[in-house]
Write a structure and sequence with these properties.
The structure holds two protein chains of two kinds. Chain A is mostly helical. Chain A has 15 helices and two strands. By secondary structure, chain B is α+β, with helices and mostly antiparallel strands. Chain B has two domains: 203 residues, Periplasmic binding protein-like II (D-Maltodextrin-Binding Protein, domain 2); 220 residues, D-Maltodextrin-Binding Protein, domain 2 (3-Layer(aba) Sandwich). The chains are: A mainly alpha, B alpha+beta. Chains A and B meet through loops of A and helix 3, helix 20 and helix 21 of B.
Chain lengths: 402, 474
């Protein structure tokens, strides 16, 4: 039994979407029927796509409010997607433009009526690869998330959105998410600021600068797992070098891996060290791109070294900085997994189980592919969200030209 | 570039390869590989390599390859993945906690089905009635051998008697209560920095399971899952909670040194072997390691039955260790070779030899007899340094090495019932993780055991319910 019948739901969405698009394209108080029709179609497709893998299970009577809320949200997102396409198509058509982009007509552009087709043909291989290796697995991951699946088990069972809703209600999952953001913030801050500092230093005309550069970039060639092993040897509370030095000089021993806060710090430091070479590499490239005349002119105008750095170098590095923030965030979200596995295995008492590590614990160790699928999808949405936010936020501040 | 020739070569190569694959015959010229996944990377790994070489010499049509993907947990996880990818090894060493899963998975062919009533396979004698009873009661499923028994141990106590005698304790502690008072006596030494702490052992749920068996308590319902499929964890019994409280007391008083990671067998072993703690618990399979460490560190080693909770009558101890499972769907010839290798590895001489190399109990009654009546030319003693077998002076191994007898005595004194047979349920592997995490929470963070283990029980029960749904017909 459903709390709202699937027919009624579909009818409502079709009506709402139709009204929305009709309203958007009303013209001099007149209703445009094809806009209404396109809106209705969008609503129909949106509901069907959203409920295809779910079979309206979120609206069954015994489900809780969270299931219904998520069900509505998915319908809304899917419908919005189709509305967006309809809106775009109608906008183009109503101002008399074709659906394909017009070939621009400056010199050097391949001019042919078939040009758009050629474009599509050239993009096709990438699209095929993306579809096979990204979009299809993505859809499968969502489907896995709606089932009780155990690696190797002969049966599976449809469980609606239980794997997703249980995440919302699990305080341990919220802890993991929070921890992931802390680690990401730490890694991005440490790896980027130290990376820039070092890049600035080795960019100075020193004797043997090339050697320093090579040595400093080296850590990037080391996999996170190996970095973990190295720092495990350094930070081991009983036999580690760091504690040996600390004890001899200051008389203290720090439980680097045995205390929740220090263990998180150890992970951040290890991951930052591992990622720093990458940042140095890009920052050096960025610094080489800045023409010395600009800094020279500034210094003639009376700017000191700090002003030169903050007013000239930093703004000109912004494309690199932006790129690095995105890649470092992604690194911190996904790649720190190897560091955690080697350094703490999520301990002490699960204090360093990040969201990605939890996927491993649940999916690989616990063999619960359904729950792991749900979690990785949540993780994906977060990273996509962060990236969009970063793109938005940095549009004004990143300048790609001088 | 002319691509015709390389393409032709590729096609030809593929045709040839497929031709070979379809008509597999194991010959001396092209022996069939038999891959074995096992956990040992130390001198016990040397022993099995040596045994594989002996087998390969006897059966040149086979090539047994010994691989070490990691510990028991890693083998179970990676074997599952290898199966899903269609590339499993011929033989996998699956530990006690994997018993129900291995039986349910359909990945393996029962040993009894391969033997099919024969008395020998490729000249290797079967005679499973010779297997010692603790192993046969643990590993047989409905009276049938699903796998071939191999490394079987039990957990025992180890003590550094030089340190204990220093504070006037002349016998190894046998109960929790005795250990607590011994630790109290040792505390001045710890405070003075002479010791890291009183005791350390791997933070492994195996000991918890042992203590439950000692107190005649089940870990799961339906008589430890042996009467019927288990459906529920028993984590809030007085017996279970007494273990949590024992850990908390040991840790709060500073007696127990925690290395910081669970199941850190190497870390806890190092603390004891280097004389930085006086007392340890470990597998009897660690006996050889500890004997060698005592020799190197020049201290007096004592072994005793696993310490128990004196508030309860002693019931018995469980065995631990693993058995060897043969993958289903192998080529018949490879399957025969795999079974022959396992029978060879576990024959009377080899199983006696493995006992001397490790401390795992001799898996056959005839091996015990052999060890009590050694003659020159038996060549069962494993020489760790030279990685080879030699004779040893004397005729009774247990008189020469009394520490190797402790495990057998402990198992002989155990009552045989479903509490001491050990738990059997499908999510044992995952549940071990959950219980250990809960135990850590109680010990390190001082949480309330009832609260913690009520939550762990809820989570474990859900896992088991899901498992039972997915692996059974109802």
């Amino acid at each position: 039994m459903f709390i709202i019948s699937p027919w009624l739901l579909t009818a409502f969405v079709v009506f709402a979407a139709s009204a929305f698009l009709g309203f958007a394209f009303r013209w001099q108080g007149q209703v445009r029927y094809w806009a209404l029709a396109a809106g209705g179609l969008s609503g129909l497709l949106g509901t069907q796509l959203a409920m295809w893998p779910l079979a309206y299970c979120t609206f069954e009577l015994e489900r809780m409010w969270l299931d219904r809320f998520l069900g509505c949200l998915i319908v809304l997102v899917c419908t919005a997607f189709f509305l967006w396409i309809s809106h775009w198509v109608i906008s183009r058509l109503s101002v008399g433009e074709g659906l394909l982009p017009k070939a621009e007509t400056y010199a050097g552009v391949f001019r042919s009526p078939l040009a758009p087709l050629l474009t599509a043909l050239c993009l096709l291989p990438t699209l095929i690869i993306l579809s096979i290796f990204h979009y299809y697995p993505l859809f499968q991951t969502f489907r896995l998330g709606t089932r009780l699946v155990r690696l190797g088990a002969p049966k599976t069972k449809f469980v609606c959105l239980d794997n997703y809703t249980s995440l919302f209600l699990d305080p341990n999952y919220w802890y993991s998410l929070g921890l992931t953001f802390v680690i990401a913030l730490g890694v991005v801050t440490v790896a980027m600021s130290l990376g820039l500092l070092i890049a600035q230093m080795v960019n100075l005309p020193l004797r043997g600068a090339n050697i320093y550069r090579a040595l400093l970039i080296w850590p990037v060639a080391i996999s996170p797992v190996v970095a973990g092993v190295l720092f495990q040897l350094l930070l081991n509370p009983v036999t580690g070098v760091v504690n040996h030095l600390l004890e001899n000089s200051l008389g203290v021993r720090i439980p680097w891996l045995g205390h929740a806060g220090f263990a998180t710090l150890s992970i951040v430091l290890t991951a930052a060290w591992n990622q720093m070479g990458f940042n140095i590499l890009f920052f050096i490239a960025g610094l080489k791109n800045i023409s010395p005349e600009l800094l020279e002119a500034a210094s003639i105008d009376g700017a000191n070294a700090f002003q030169g750095f903050f007013r000239i170098t930093l703004p000109l590095l912004s494309p690199f900085t932006f790129f690095l923030i995105v890649t470092n965030t992604i690194y911190a979200f996904f790649q720190t997994f190897g560091v955690i596995d080697i350094l703490t295995r999520g301990g002490p008492v699960n204090a360093t189980v990040s969201a990605m590590y939890r996927v491993y614990v649940v999916g690989v160790l616990g063999k619960d592919l359904g729950k792991a699928g749900a979690q990785s999808l949540v993780l994906l949405l977060i990273v996509v969200g962060i990236t969009i936010l970063q793109f938005r936020g940095s549009q004004e501040r990143v300048s790609y030209g001088v | 570039m002319n691509l015709k020739q390389p393409l032709l070569a590729l096609v030809l190569g593929l045709v040839l390869l497929s031709g070979f694959a379809s008509s597999q015959t194991c010959t001396e010229a092209s022996p069939c590989d038999i891959t074995v996944w096992q956990i040992f990377a130390d001198h016990r790994g040397d022993w099995i390599m040596d045994t594989a070489t002996r087998f390969n010499d006897l059966y040149p049509q086979y090539n047994v390859v010994i691989e070490n993907p990691g510990d028991y947990f890693a083998i179970l996880d990676q074997y599952t993945l290898a199966q899903e990818q269609g590339n499993p090894p011929a033989i996998a060493q699956i530990f006690d906690a994997g018993l129900q899963f291995a039986a349910d998975s359909g990945y393996f062919k029962y040993a009894d089905d391969i033997i099919d009533g024969r008395e020998e396979v490729l000249g290797q004698e079967v005679n499973f009635s010779d297997i010692v009873s603790p192993a046969s009661s643990y590993y047989t499923i409905d009276g049938r051998w699903a796998s071939v028994a191999w490394n079987t141990s039990t957990s025992i106590s180890y003590a550094n008697m030089d340190i204990l005698k220093d504070v006037g304790i002349n016998a190894i502690p046998t109960t929790w209560q005795e250990l607590l008072s011994a630790c109290e006596a040792l505390q001045p030494k710890v405070d003075a920095g002479e010791l890291e702490g009183c005791a350390s052992w791997p933070f492994d749920n195996w000991f918890t399971e042992q203590w439950l068996a000692q107190m005649n308590q089940y870990l799961v319902n339906n008589e430890n899952g042996r009467a019927e499929r288990a459906t529920e964890l028993l984590l809030t019994t007085d017996e279970f909670l007494s273990i949590a409280n024992f850990y908390r007391e040991l840790f709060e008083k500073g007696y127990y040194v925690y290395t910081g990671t669970r199941r850190d067998w190497a870390g806890a072993g190092n603390l004891f072997n280097s004389g930085r703690v006086a007392f340890s618990l470990s597998s009897s399979a660690d006996a050889r390691n500890k004997v060698e460490a005592a020799k190197a560190g020049d201290f007096e080693l004592a072994t005793g039955k696993l310490i128990r909770n004196a508030d309860y009558d002693y019931n018995g101890n469980i065995i631990g260790g693993a058995t060897m499972w043969i993958t289903a769907g192998l080529e018949p010839e490879v399957e025969e070779g795999a079974m022959a290798f396992l029978l060879f590895m576990n024959n009377t001489e080899n199983s006696a030899s493995f006992h001397t190399a490790s401390g795992y109990i001799p898996i056959r009654n005839s091996s015990v007899e052999l060890l009590q009546n050694l003659k020159s030319g038996n060549n069962v003693f494993w020489d760790v340094d030279n990685k080879s077998r030699t004779d040893i002076e004397g005729s009774n191994w247990y008189e020469i090495n009394p520490n190797f007898l402790t495990a057998s005595v402990q198992l002989a004194e155990s009552n045989v019932n479903n509490a001491s047979a050990g738990a059997k349920f499908g999510t044992f592997r995952e549940t071990r993780d959950l219980i250990e995490a809960g135990m850590e929470d109680v010990m390190l963070n001082g949480k309330d055991p009832v609260q913690v283990f009520t939550a762990v029980k809820t989570e474990s029960d859900k896992l088991l319910e899901d498992y039972n749904f997915l692996y059974t017909d109802n």
